[in-house]
Design goal:
CATH superfamily: Creatinase/methionine aminopeptidase superfamily
Radius of gyration: 17 Å
Distance between the termini: 19 Å
CATH topology: Creatine Amidinohydrolase
CATH architecture: Alpha-Beta Complex
Strand content: 25-35%
Number of domains: 1
Length: 245
C-alpha cells in the first residue's frame, strides 16, 4: 500500500509498535529450556493486550501466532514442543494486524552462548538489512535494494537465500512489489514516496538454497544455519521511516 494520509500512517505506526514490543519481549524470553510454543503463547498475549491479531493466521490460517524458526529453518517455523538449546539461532518473525493495518519484522536471536561463526551470520543479516534500507529512497528501484543486500551479505562471506524475499505490506501481509534480496537484471519497479514495504535479508552460512519441509517450513538445503532480519518501512525522499524499530 501507499501511506497517503495521516490516518494511514497512524494505523501503520500502531501496528508497528505491537510488532516491536512483541519482538523485544520474546528476545528477553528466548533462553535455553523454553519451548517455541511458550514463546508463541507470550506473543499471543502481547497481541491480545493491544487488540491486535496474528497476520499469518488471518491471511493463511498459519498454525501459530508468529513464525519461530530454529537452526537451519529459514522461514515459517511452526511453534511447538521444541525446547531451545544453548547455541541455537532462533528467528522471531512477527506480523501483527491492528485495525486493518499490518506490520512485519524479524530478529534472529542467539540462545545462550552461540559460536562466533553464528554471531557473524546474525551480524551479516542485520548489516544487509541496514544496507538495504539505506538504498530504499524515493526515485531508486526495488532492485537497488537487492543489489545492496546481496553485496553486503556476500562481502561478509555468506549467501542470500535468493528464493525468499521481502514484499509490499499494509492492508495484507503480502502485497506488491516483491522486494528481492539479490540483483535481478531487467526492469524494476520504482520506489515511490509513501510506499510501504518490508526489507528482509534471509541468509545462510551455506549456499543459500532452500527446500520445503512439510506444508510450511523452508529449510536450507545443505543443513547450514540461517539468519533473518526484517523491518517494515515507508519510503520517503530521504531515509525511510522504520515502523517496526
Amino acid at each position: 500500500m501507499s501511506a497517503d494520509t495521516p490516518e494511514d500512517l497512524a494505523g501503520l505506526r500502531a501496528a508497528g509498535r505491537v510488532v516491536a514490543q512483541t519482538i523485544r519481549e520474546l528476545r528477553r524470553l528466548a533462553r535455553p529450556g523454553i519451548t517455541t510454543a511458550e514463546l508463541d503463547a507470550h506473543a499471543a498475549r502481547v497481541f491480545a493486550a493491544h487488540g491486535a491479531r496474528s497476520g499469518p493466521q488471518l491471511d493463511y490460517d498459519f498454525p501459530g501466532t508468529i513464525c519461530i524458526s530454529v537452526g537451519d529453518e529459514a522461514v515459517h517455523g511452526i511453534p511447538g514442543r521444541r525446547r531451545l538449546r544453548d547455541g541455537d539461532l532462533v528467528k522471531l518473525d512477527v506480523t501483527a494486524e491492528l485495525d486493518g493495518f499490518y506490520a512485519d519484522a524479524c530478529r534472529t536471536v542467539a540462545v545462550g552462548k552461540a559460536k562466533p561463526s553464528a554471531l557473524k551470520l546474525i551480524g551479516a543479516a542485520e548489516s544487509g538489512l541496514k544496507r538495504g534500507m539505506a538504498a530504499a529512497t524515493a526515485g531508486a528501484t526495488v532492485n537497488d535494494i537487492g543489489i545492496a543486500v546481496q553485496g553486503e551479505v556476500e562481502r561478509r562471506g555468506f549467501s542470500v537465500c535468493h528464493a525468499l524475499s521481502g514484499h509490499g505490506i499494509g492492508r495484507s501481509i503480502h502485497e506488491e512489489p516483491t522486494v528481492f534480496n539479490v540483483d535481478v537484471p531487467g526492469p524494476s519497479p520504482a520506489l515511490t514516496e509513501g510506499l510501504v514495504i518490508t526489507i528482509e535479508p534471509i541468509i545462510a552460512a551455506g549456499d543459500g538454497e532452500v527446500v520445503e519441509d512439510g506444508e510450511w517450513i523452508l529449510r536450507t538445503g545443505d543443513g547450514s544455519l540461517s539468519a533473518h532480519a526484517e523491518h517494515t518501512i515507508v519510503i520517503t525522499d530521504g531515509a525511510p521511516l522504520v515502523l517496526t524499530a
